[in-house]
Amino acid sequence: MTRALAVELGKSGITVNAIAPGWFATEMNAEAADDPRYCSVAFTSQCSRTLG
Questions:
Q1: 2 near 18, Cβ under 8 Å?
Q2: Count of domains forming the chain
Q3: Range of the structural domain that residue 50 is part of
Q4: Is-contact 51 25, C-beta < 8 A?
Q5: How far is CA 38 from the centre of its chain?
Q6: % helix / strand / coil in the chain, to the nearest 5?
Q7: CA 36, CA 27: separation in Å to the nearest integer?
Q8: 1-52 pLDDT, tens per residue?
Q9: CB within 8 A of 25, min separation 6: which ones?
């Protein structure tokens, strides 16, 4: 969505930014959050390298 807005509004000189939270432990991802192998791969794209 951010990219689409940036393309559309950029024509008018308007910039678009987005802030996305990192991973949060939930019931849905509890099994993955407990797996160190999964976390090591998933967290490589996050600055904080932690849940939440």
A1: yes
A2: 1
A3: 21-52
A4: yes
A5: 16
A6: 45, 0, 55
A7: 17
A8: 888 998 999 999 999 988 877 677 788 888 887 888 887 777 776 665 666 6
A9: 33, 51, 52
